[in-house]
Amino acid sequence: MGVDPLVLARVQFALTAGSHFVFVALTLGLATLVALMQTRATLSRSAVHARMTRFWGQLYVINYAVGVVTGLVMEFQFGLNWGGMSRVVGEVFGVPLALETVAAFFVESTFLGLWIFGWDRLNRWLHLVLIWVVALTAYCSAYFVLVANGWLQRPVGYVMRDGTARLTDLGALLANPTAVLAFGHVLFGGLLTAGFFMAGVSAFHLFRRTEEVEFFRRSVRTGLVAVAVSVMPVVIFGGSQVRYVQPTKRGASEEGLAAQAAFVARFGPGDYLPPGLAGAGEAVMVLSWLVMVALAVAGLVKVPFGRWLVRGRVFHVVLMAAVPVPYVAMLGGWVFREVGRQPWTVYGVLRTEDALSQVPPGMIAASFVAFTGLFAVLVVLNVWLLARYARRGPRGSRLGAVPSAASEPEPAAAL
Fold first, then answer.
1. Dihedral angle over CA of 337, 341, 347, 351, nearest 10
2. pLDDT tens-digit profile of 236-288?
3. Which of 174, 307, 292, 275 is nearest to 228 (CA)?
4. Cβ contact 186:146 at 8 Å
5. Angle at alpha carbon of residue 230, lines to 227 and 234, rounded to 5°
6. 256 and which of 235, 238, 250, 338 could share a cystine (Cβ 3.0–4.6 Å)?
7. Mean pLDDT of 344-363
8. Distance separating alpha carbons of residues 185 and 190, to the nearest angstrom
């Protein structure tokens, strides 16, 4: 007996969307930290902060470049596997995605290209403006994606006409609390991710007794400060979303059972309570956050004492091991948010089984194999590239470097 096409389509989207999300988190956080480093370097003419900008900026560019590919590939699934969704709610759901495309794939990528190739060629103030435009458009891109997702969680600003959702209030769509609060949650989650990443990579070099002590001492402090600044706001924004949690996410409580009964009356018999996996995701998210709080407190104790940061080998190992923790927390929260919405694609409007494309099961199986295989390759490639260039340290950074005259080919050879 073959696998249910609906299960395959859901697992495929879970794997690809979750994989893409981990790229986004590091991109958002690193863009902010790199912009702050370059601001410090521009204002103070600090040589070490200029080098930090190049090194961490190169890792940011690697993660961004591979992440863009995953985003492009992921969106093909809406037409391939979820034709019912595109047909019924595409006119509303597609609006924020179109805005995100303009922000991410046109504005952000254009200014990022100018920032990369304008190094030492543009005025330093103009070059600084470019990285801040990149960071701000990255925020816009994330916000528009969360607007689309927030509408799936809490549909507002629309009417159903002839079985199709029509947008009636763009302001309500853009100001949906499930999007606004989630944006703050993701923004600080990205800073947490980048902070742990920066602290972990720096700890690796300090553990190996690098000659670049000052460089990585400043970098590990920057990462730990980012963690300390973000660890409480991320849970505040997360907790603020509780009032907008769908009633059925509350399980077998009085509110959850009342919502179940209401859906049965409207849509017919069925199980409208989310599967247990949603609760497991919430538990993983909370436990991971508690670990990050403990590490943030330890970091606050050590940050004022630079000698401890440089010589604390046990602490270095802890920081290296902590790099995956924010990723685990984010994926756990994502499972709670998305699985907890089941069996709805658009909560209370469109069931997931009705959103599936009416295509032969073999096509969905082929899509599953192709997409998950491609994403696995991209994730492995990204990890390998980040590890390779992170190990090289600042002396191996080539971001914005101009080829030396000795390395340029002779005119005759070029012909």
1. 140
2. 999 898 888 888 887 777 787 888 888 888 888 888 888 878 888 889 999 99
3. 292
4. yes
5. 130
6. 250
7. 87
8. 9
Which amino acid would we find at residue 365?
A
Question: DSSP of 15-54, one letter per residue?
Answer: HHHHHHHHHHHHHHHHHHHHHHHHHHHHHH--HHHHHHHH
Q: How many whole angstroms separate alpha carbon 404 and alpha carbon 236?
A: 50
Alpha carbon distance 47, 218 (integer Å) = 12
pLDDT of 172-187, one tens digit each? 999 999 999 999 999 9
User: Quick count: other Cβ atoms within 10 Å of Cβ 74?
Assistant: 18
Return the closest-CA partner of residue 176 out of 52, 92, 275: 92
Q: Where are the domains of the chain?
A: 5-386
What is the H or E stretch that residue 345 is in? Answer: strand 344-346
Q: For residue 171, with 0-12 CB atoms within 10 Å meaning exposed, 13-18 middle and 19 or more buried, which class applies?
A: exposed
| Burial track 270-296 (b if 16+ CB lie within 10 A, e otherwise) | eebbbeeebbebbebbeebbeebeebb
Distance in angstroms (rounded) separating the CA atoms of residues 40 and 21: 29
Using one digit for the tens of pLDDT, what is the confidence trace for 296-313?
888 777 666 566 677 778
Alpha-helix residue ranges (DSSP H) falling in 275-360: 277-302, 306-311, 313-322, 325-339, 352-355
pTM of the model: 0.89
Distances (CA, A) of 125 to 128, 139, 415: 5, 21, 38
Contact 108, 385 (CB under 8 A): no
Please give the Cα distance from 376 to 393 (Å, whole number): 26
* φ, ψ for residue 256, nearest 5 deg: -65, -40
DSSP secondary structure code for residue 276 in this structure: T
